[in-house]
Amino acid sequence: MRQRVDRIFAALETEVDAIVLWNASSHLTDSTFKYVSGVTRGGYEGCAAVLRKGLRPTLLVSTLEEESAHTASDSDVVAFQSQPALREILQITLASPRRLGVNADALVLAKANLLRELFDGVELVDVSAAISAARLVKDSDEIERVRHACDITNEVAADIPSMLREGLTEVQLAARIEQAIQSRGGRAAFNTIVCFGKNGSEPHYSPGDVPLRRGDMILVDFGSQWSDYCSDITRMYLFGGASSEQRAMFDVVRQAQASALELMRAGVAGKRVHQRAKEVIDATEFAGRFIHGTGHSIGLDVHDGGGLNDASEIMLAPGMILTVEPGVYVPGAGGVRIEDTVLVTADGPEVLTTVTKDLVEVAV
Fold first, then answer.
1. Which of these, 3, 11, 306, 336, has the minimum number of CB atoms within 10 Å of its CB?
2. Can you tell me the mean pLDDT for 336-363?
3. DSSP-derived 3-state class of residue 327
């Protein structure tokens, strides 16, 4: 874990005496805490991590989390029984810092204000860009965890056609998918998206009580999380035979994704991958119907700090894991998205979500 901390410090534009990661409530915890510590169990609500260049991370954890925190073999663990006690430990640990790094993308204002109260005159420096840069390139352990999450996802996606029945609702299919993930030792990485028919035109649609009918095209976007690391996939199914319009929409997206995947190589600008997919779609009758970026970095978080879009500053490098997911969305008709989790290697892209990306037509 010390190597991960060193990568963060190496990416800093401004020197700091230390970096403090301070979690708030359970839904406002910084996944970088797990990144720098390697902990595999526990929630760490209200806990903190102190990072110093060249040293092991120091984890300040509640007694509730103390046993779990000792799974972090390359970190020092200090337990506290109350938030006032934690503040005292921070003062002792950090002495009198002049400049503290904070991950502004994940730090709530209340914790930032407490740091200013604890250390009079301290300057808080936003180091979120350095953290994102470090986390963007995965080490071998991270890659294997994402690979395992993708293995689970592949198995579940292959089983989806057997789950389909006329009258099955979107929420019921989403529940079956998430249960299948759990039965394989994972958990859902995010709320599963299931769209029947025209609902596919909403990229972040929330499944409802819509029943499956013959002729419906089905968009399923889901991911597995295993040992804290995520996968992400979108596949298309057809309940019955595809119409010419449905097939045309699918074929355009399939071609766009294949073209984008060709550019997922070290040294290629992330924005170029997006532009390639957009160019393919905009050269067809579906021009203007691709309304989001082509992909995002994935790891401890589903959206892990970088993306493939017009504003992307990413230069692809070995060890990066990103999704590639162009789509076409036609209100009133439906939508198509094809998404894979992709590892950039020295030899080119390795698609980790290997289940077929054909339009699977399910006989009814």
1. 3
2. 97
3. strand
- In which band, very low, low, confident or very high, does the pLDDT at 305 lie, cut at 50, 70 and 90? confident
- The verdict on 94 and 240 lying in the same domain is no
Cα angle 62, 65, 66 (rounded to 5 degrees) comes to 85
Q: Name residues whose C-beta falls within 8 Å of residue 140's C-beta, 6 or more positions apart in sequence.
A: none
CA angle 44, 46, 48 (to 5 degrees): 75
Indicate whether 66 and 144 sit together in one domain: no
Residues 306 and 320 in one domain: yes
Task: Verify that 131 and 188 share a domain, yes or no.
Answer: no
**CB-side neighbour CA atoms (13 Å) of 197:** 14
The last residue of one of the domains, among 91, 118, 135, is: 135
Residues of the domain holding 324: 140-362
Residues 88, 225 within the same domain = no
Six token digits for residue 125: 């420096």
Q: Give the mean pLDDT of 325-351.
A: 97
Could you give the CA distance from residue 14 to residue 29 in angstroms, rounded to a whole number? Answer: 25
Q: Is there a single domain that holds both residue 295 and residue 244? A: yes
pLDDT tens, residue by residue, 156-211: 999 999 999 999 999 999 999 999 999 999 999 999 999 999 999 999 999 999 99
Please indicate, yes or no, whether residues 110 and 248 belong to a single structural domain of this protein. no
pLDDT over 70, % of the chain: 100
Give the CATH number of the domain where residue 333 resides: 3.90.230.10
User: Considering its fold, how many domains does the chain have in total?
Assistant: 2
3-class DSSP assignment, residue 26: helix
Assigned token pair, 180: 């299948």
Using only C-alpha atoms, the chain has a radius of gyration, in whole angstroms, of 22
Q: What is the pLDDT of residues 44-101, one digit of tens each?
A: 999 999 999 999 999 999 999 999 998 877 899 999 999 999 999 999 999 999 999 9
- Whether the pLDDT of residue 38 is over 90: the answer is no
